Amino acid sequence: MTADADPSAIRSIAVSRDDVVDAFVYGRENPGAAVLRVTPPFHGRMRARIHVYRADDARVTGAVHVRPETLLEDDAVASYPALEDEREDASSDETERVRKRHAEAVDAWRERAREAIAETVALETPDGSTTVSVKPLE
């Protein structure tokens, strides 16, 4: 592996607060997966960007995928609002109210979660796990 393809060179990753929150919500509300992705060539300071996929291509591209829940503080992950079960006999108005309440709860959660970015994260590399600093962008 060439030096610029070795993710163990990474000391810190910069992330958009919105990308972290959006990736987390996407994974809870949609099929497929969303991660924060770091692509080679690797160096000390890297930018991680949101990446949505159905088939993981990290082995082919050499990218490092960081799960959004690892970039959020545990309390933020645990407080994500669950969607209420919809009753089969519910009216369309009642169903719409449930969905609206959930959307409002998710919006409120997003605001709190933007301020709950972890200070460090473990990245998986061919040589094992390495912990790097997380630098939130405004």
UniProtKB/TrEMBL annotation:
It comes from Natronococcus jeotgali DSM 18795. It comes from the Archaea. Residues 3-137 form the DUF8009 domain. This is DUF8009 domain-containing protein. Residues 78-98 are annotated as: Disordered. Residues 83-93 have a biased composition (Acidic residues). InterPro entries: DUF8009 (IPR058322).
